[in-house]
User: Which sequence fits this backbone?
């Protein structure tokens, strides 16, 4: 059985209303909105950063996480610092 145009419109409106209610409200004028992944990749590339993935033992990652909590630059800066010292 086909739906009437008004039924389709009503269904679409309820779908959109549900999406709107589930969406998070950004900060004032979206100042607190997170940076889009594509934008973040461009910013990282402009800064000369390259993604580098590797597999590490869980004990080592736990130690890195503990040290990164106290490090000013976070885990990325900590790993870069440790690699620089280790390769020198």
Assistant:
């Amino acid at each position: 059985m086909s739906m009437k145009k008004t039924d389709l419109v009503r269904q679409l409106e309820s779908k959109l209303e549900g999406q709107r209610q589930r969406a998070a409200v950004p900060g004032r004028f979206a100042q607190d909105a997170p940076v889009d992944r594509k934008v973040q990749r461009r910013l990282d590339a402009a800064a000369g950063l390259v993604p580098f993935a590797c597999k590490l033992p869980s004990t080592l990652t736990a130690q890195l996480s503990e040290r990164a909590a106290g490090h000013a630059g976070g885990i990325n800066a900590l790993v870069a610092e440790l690699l620089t010292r280790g390769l020198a």
Notes: The two ends are 74 Å apart (CA to CA). The chain has four helices and no strands.
